[in-house]
Design a protein that fits this description.
The chain is an alpha+beta fold. The protein is built from three helices and ten strands. It is globular, with a radius of gyration of 19 Å. The N terminus is likely disordered.
Length: about 160
């Protein structure tokens, strides 16, 4: 019996590998003060560590290599698009990125067009790597918060105001 108990304790003490979340969150904020649409992408750092090694280089280091951080921010910019309901592209400008705790953030913005009645969004970030990836987008600053979920074959989704 003591041997069985010892084996059980050893199993509890074994390191457990970290699990990828396969989920990201984006906030699209219509800022009335600045007249900008501010886009804030939040990724779990653990997921981005795996992603950059698959996307760029097996030795890529998103924690401390500015080059890798910039590459990932550029990748996100090529995977996230916004359009008006009339299909006019909203040219998002890259503003920056940062590591903050267990998250990697990417920031974009564009001037808020007048009389915008809704927005079409595409978020393919990490979905090309992981078919189970889910990208949640919250749209704020235009009445009630609207949430869009990009997964599997959901490409362009619409939020109306």
């Amino acid at each position: 019996m003591p041997l069985l108990f010892l084996v059980f304790l050893m199993m509890l003490a074994s390191p457990v590998p970290a699990h990828q979340q396969k989920a990201a969150e984006t906030t699209v904020l219509f800022n009335k003060r600045t007249h900008l649409i501010e886009v804030m992408h939040r990724f779990y750092l653990h997921d981005t560590e795996h992603a950059v090694q698959d996307l760029f280089d097996r030795n890529a280091d998103i924690l401390s290599a500015k080059k890798t951080q910039q590459q990932f921010a550029d990748y996100v910019a090529k995977q996230f698009f916004a359009r008006t309901l009339q299909d006019k592209p909203l040219a998002l400008k890259n503003v920056g990125y940062e590591v903050d705790g267990k998250f990697f953030w990417v920031y974009q913005e564009v001037t808020h067009p007048a009389n915008l009645k809704g927005i079409k969004l595409y978020n393919g970030t990490l979905r090309d790597l992981w078919p189970t990836q889910v990208n949640m987008v919250n749209i704020e600053g235009k009445g009630k918060v609207r949430t869009l979920y990009f997964s599997k074959n959901k490409d362009w989704l619409v939020a109306r105001f």
